């Protein structure tokens, strides 16, 4: 059980409207990711759902029951914070026990749940340590442990991986995905990293300046973004936007083409440019190509392509992969 | 790590300060110890020679000794309890966002800038005076007989005056500690279903432990030697004679430097006993 409905939810801090009225439906068991650049209101939206901020207007219902004015504890949601927010003077066991103790749960039952959670999260050997004695990844798992023992109707994650190093981040990403498959509980996950969004989500909500730009599955967003913002935000490296003759030829104000959908040739092609920096990753090569008119095109070519700095190359976009945009930036 | 050279340079540089501080401490201490073994009566013949442990036995044998130790401990304990409890409450209140925060915070700190002698006189004459004091008016307004604070409730009055002086210090230290508490921790606790009282008990209080320790230790050092407030209010009468006041009386009123010095040595011993107890009780909060 864990469906959440936001209707006409808005939030203002003083005169500043951070979130204009928006509607959103989150189904039971879904992994929903809020993604957007920093300052887009995604954390605020999560805190509104959690009950840590009051709504300016609108309503939130959880499992069909109105929760607009319910206190955070009454909503039955659990949150994992960016800083983990572990209680520093309590052992790991006491940290995980805290919500159960506050709920007045019988200690035998609580211990059973703590041990089960510790087993799932590989924390059994660390239960008597203090958070200060743990590594970043372990603290993260304690924070998740504290959330799962309550058996909440939904989990809220506020940029939980941003304090971890790159390798650990990939690991924790998998662990959280695994956890979602095992528990089958609704999860709402906030991140500014579109890679996290793409890899983890069932449903991505792209936010920009408080507005929901698009809602959809990762591949929907990748293949058919509704506007230029979503097109540029989803996908790495970023989509190239081209204006001028090549756009007019295709009846658009501008066109977008992803770096992986451009064919490179040394003889002929639609665009001609000079290779700037090329990044050899082994599997792929990212080329930064300077066009004659001063624009830049990023190309993702195969790893065995040998080009040198300053070399002249030709590029042609794959026609069926081109995204066309009108002057307002909407997809045609 | 420091090299051999930088270490010896550091020692050389620190030497003047260390020597000065050491001299500052050792000279008076040695003189006190020296005088405590002499029969030294400035106005009645001066230094009259070796006295052995006479001064020590006389000082401890005096009927005022144990009551003065008790008075000292009661004042220290009372002021500590009041300042820490009220300090925590004030710190939590001042941490709330409110209009005029800056002014209010300065006002709260203000009593700390008033000299002890002055504040004790203000309390004595403006608040506690049984005829003209503010409290007397309040009591009379409700039809009660004014309390003669400094004679009927002398101990409570002194504790009240001293607490008023030290409350800002405690509030200030505790406020900075409250402000350094991670707000996400409080939010996490709120999501975990903790009420305000549980959040206070399980999160805020443990977080404040170190600051409370510092407040207790520093205040104890200063409160053990409290003098001016007693001098200008009760003059040591009505059971408010502390150990430091007793020493003052022996040295200046009885003109017996030897006896007073022996009292000084007892004061050092008392301070150390208190320090050992305090470190046992709260000292562990300082590590970690």
UniProtKB/TrEMBL annotation, chain A:
GO molecular function: ABC-type maltose transporter activity; ATP binding; ATP hydrolysis activity
Listed CDD domains: ABC_MalK_N
SMART domains the record matches: AAA
Domain ABC transporter: 4-234
A Gene Ontology term for the protein's cellular component: ATP-binding cassette (ABC) transporter complex, substrate-binding subunit-containing
InterPro entries on file: AAA+_ATPase, ABC_transporter-like_ATP-bd, ABC_transporter-like_CS, ABC_transpr_MalK-like, ABC_transpr_MalK/UgpC-like, Transp-assoc_OB_typ2
Keywords recorded for this protein, A-Z: ATP-binding, Nucleotide-binding, Transport
Family in the record: Belongs to the ABC transporter superfamily.
PANTHER family (alphabetical): MALTODEXTRIN IMPORT ATP-BINDING PROTEIN MSMX (PTHR43875), MALTOSE_MALTODEXTRIN IMPORT ATP-BINDING PROTEIN MALK (PTHR43875:SF3)
Name used for this protein in its record: ABC transporter ATP-binding protein
From TrEMBL, chain B:
CDD domains: TM_PBP2
Domain of life per record: Bacteria
Keywords, sorted A to Z: Cell membrane, Membrane, Transmembrane, Transmembrane helix, Transport
Subcellular location: Cell membrane
Sequence ranges assigned to domain ABC transmembrane type-1 in this UniProt record: 69-278
Bilayer topology term: Multi-pass membrane protein
One GO biological process term: transmembrane transport
GO cellular component terms given for this protein: plasma membrane
UniProt record similarity statement: Belongs to the binding-protein-dependent transport system permease family.
Name under which the protein is recorded: Sugar ABC transporter permease
Organism: Roseobacter insulae
């Amino acid at each position: 059980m864990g469906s959440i409905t936001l209707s006409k939810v808005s939030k203002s801090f003083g005169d500043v409207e951070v979130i204009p009225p928006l509607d959103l439906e989150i189904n039971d068991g879904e992994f929903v990711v809020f993604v957007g650049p920093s300052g887009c209101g995604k954390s605020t939206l999560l805190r509104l759902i959690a009950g840590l901020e009051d709504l300016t207007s609108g309503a939130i219902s959880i499992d069909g029951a109105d929760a607009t004015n319910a206190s955070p504890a009454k909503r039955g949601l659990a949150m994992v914070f960016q800083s983990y927010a572990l209680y520093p003077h309590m052992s790991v066991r006491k940290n995980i026990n805290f919500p159960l103790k506050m709920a007045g749960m019988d200690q035998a039952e609580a211990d059973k749940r703590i041990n089960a959670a510790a087993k799932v999260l590989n924390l059994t050997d660390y239960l008597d340590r203090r958070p200060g004695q743990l590594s970043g990844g372990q603290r993260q798992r304690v924070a998740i442990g504290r959330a799962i023992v309550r058996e909440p109707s939904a989990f809220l994650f506020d940029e939980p991986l941003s304090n971890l190093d790159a390798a650990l981040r990939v690991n924790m990403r998998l662990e959280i995905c695994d956890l979602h498959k095992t528990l089958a509980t609704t999860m709402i996950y906030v991140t500014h990293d579109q890679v996290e969004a793409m890899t983890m989500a069932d449903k991505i909500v792209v936010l920009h300046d408080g507005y929901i730009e698009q809602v959809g599955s990762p591949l929907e967003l990748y293949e058919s973004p509704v506007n230029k913002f979503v097109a540029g935000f989803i996908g790495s490296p970023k989509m190239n936007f081209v204006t001028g003759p090549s756009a007019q030829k295709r009846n658009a104000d501008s066109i977008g083409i992803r770096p992986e959908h451009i064919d490179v040739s040394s003889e002929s092609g639609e665009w001609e440019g000079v290779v700037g920096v090329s990044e050899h990753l082994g599997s792929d090569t990212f080329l930064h190509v300077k066009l004659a008119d001063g624009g830049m095109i990023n190309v993702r070519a195969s790893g065995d392509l040998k080009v040198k700095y300053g070399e002249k190359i030709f590029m042609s976009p794959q026609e069926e992969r081109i995204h066309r945009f009108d002057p307002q930036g909407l997809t045609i | 790590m420091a090299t051999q050279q930088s270490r010896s340079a550091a020692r050389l540089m620190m030497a003047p300060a260390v020597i000065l501080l050491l001299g500052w401490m050792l000279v008076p201490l040695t003189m006190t110890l020296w005088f405590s073994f002499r029969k030294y009566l400035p106005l009645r013949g001066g230094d009259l020679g070796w006295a052995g442990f006479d001064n020590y036995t006389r000082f401890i044998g005096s009927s005022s000794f144990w009551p003065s130790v008790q008075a000292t401990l009661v004042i220290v304990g009372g002021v500590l309890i009041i300042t820490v409890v009220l300090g925590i409450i004030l710190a939590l209140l001042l941490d709330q966002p409110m209009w005029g925060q800056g002014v209010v915070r300065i006002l709260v700190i203000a009593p700390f800038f008033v000299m002890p002698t002055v504040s004790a006189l203000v309390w004595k004459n403006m608040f506690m005076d049984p005829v003209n004091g503010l409290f007397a008016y309040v009591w009379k307004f409700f039809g009660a007989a004014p309390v003669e604070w400094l004679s009927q409730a002398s101990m409570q009055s002194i504790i009240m005056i001293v607490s008023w002086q030290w409350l800002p210090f405690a509030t200030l230290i505790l406020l900075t500690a409250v402000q350094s508490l991670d707000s996400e921790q409080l939010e996490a606790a709120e999501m975990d279903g903790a009420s305000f009282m549980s959040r206070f008990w399980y999160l805020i209080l443990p977080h404040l432990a170190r600051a409370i320790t510092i407040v207790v230790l520093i205040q104890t050092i200063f409160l053990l030697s409290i003098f001016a407030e007693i001098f200008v209010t009760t003059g040591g009468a009505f059971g408010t004679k502390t150990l430091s006041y007793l020493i003052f009386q022996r040295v200046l009123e009885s003109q017996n430097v030897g006896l007073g010095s022996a009292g000084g040595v007892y004061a050092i011993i008392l301070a150390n006993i208190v320090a050992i107890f305090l470190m046992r009780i709260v000292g562990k909060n300082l590590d970690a």
